[in-house]
Amino acid sequence: MKSLYFKEEHTLFRNSVRQFMEKEVIPYIEVWETERKIPKDIFKKMGEQGYLGLNFPETYGGVNADFWYSVIFLEEIAKVGAGGFPTAVSVHQFMAINHIFKAGSDFLKEKYLRPAIQGEKVAALGVSEPGAGSDVSALRTKAVKEGDFYIINGSKTFITNGTYGDFITLAVSTNPENKAGGISLIVVDLNSEGITRTKLNKMGWHSSDTAEISFDNVKVPFENLIGVENFGFYYIMESFQLERLVAGIMAVASSQWILDETIQYMHEREAFGRKIAKYQALRHTIADLATEIEAARQLVYHTCWLQAEGEVAVKQCSMIKLYCAELSNKVVDKCLQIFGGYGYMEDYFICRAYRDSRVGTIAGGTSEIMREIISKMIIDDIDYKPVYKGK
Ligand SMILES: Cc1cc2nc3c(=O)[nH]c(=O)nc-3n(C[C@H](O)[C@H](O)[C@H](O)COP(=O)(O)OP(=O)(O)OC[C@H]3O[C@@H](n4cnc5c(N)ncnc54)[C@H](O)[C@@H]3O)c2cc1C
């Protein structure tokens, strides 16, 4: 079908990503889910293909492709059969290292961005804390200056890639009196002395590793500061937009995949002597879900176009995060119903998809927070200004 956004070269790229996933990822998903981690060498393999540096400049080993290549990559990794793998990869590329690309020094780009693009180092993003999730300005992990170093104390929780990641883009308070205006981003090697990492046990996303990390007098050189000191909160707020768009792209792609698999099952399963695909109650459920997925996809693609044009589309990204995450829960719930008792069995993909979908309305900003942002923008006329100049 014709597309406003995708050209022939994009389709070729999609085919190559799909082939890669079929060869290097899908056959191993069951093992990774059981072991509750993905092996680090899959990052290297993706790095060799250029998949981890799609929108980064060639100077640092990136591909410098347009944003639609990232859209395709995200859509394809969202269909591998488990939510943990796409989460680990997207946090690495679109969340943790994006800050270094946007505001980091050349030193940080050479030391961390380049090896992350190559898949040699795995990155995590540390914002959430036991006492500060939705309210980022309440974070308490402190970085105090001593000589040429920051000394970091505190703890982070729910950190994706936290147990086996190599470094973390860490949000810390450098001026506690100033709350939001006193937060900075610092890159910290996760093998530094004073760091303790504890793996968390989750309902889903089993193949992604999620950790609580504590920092006890961790010494980090000044040169690891990203951008301007005390500007971290604004970097985080702006980067949330890409994170939420990425979450929406993957939620729509996985919803479509779940729907397609469910339709396939309806053609195979019989009840009362007929294929269940013939029952109008189920057909109408599928028609409704397909319509909602298509509507969501068009909002996502429009916002991807805004992103590609360099806009910071706060309202649209918040709407996408809200709508696509809630839609994903609805799609997987209704599709599981169509699988009957088999949908409740771990042997069926839909069972894992149900568990994996649930966190979508929580991680990366809850649905309640999305509603807060949207209502402030459309009722109180609050606007958000970009902070990364010229990028
Ligand atoms: C699997 C997983 C992976 C994650 N990965 C990362 C990661 O890599 N890095 C990272 O930094 N974080 C990560 N997170 C953290 C995630 O972003 C937070 O869980 C999320 O922001 C919510 O924070 P919280 O859990 O502290 O909930 P809270 O902030 O305690 O919220 C509790 C409830 O109160 C509601 N609430 C809070 N404030 C308001 C308000 N103003 N109005 C209305 N309702 C409100 C919330 O919507 C929620 O329902 C991850 C979380 C999970 C579960």
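^ flavin-adenine dinucleotide complex. The chain has eleven helices and ten strands. The first helix runs from residue 8 to 25.
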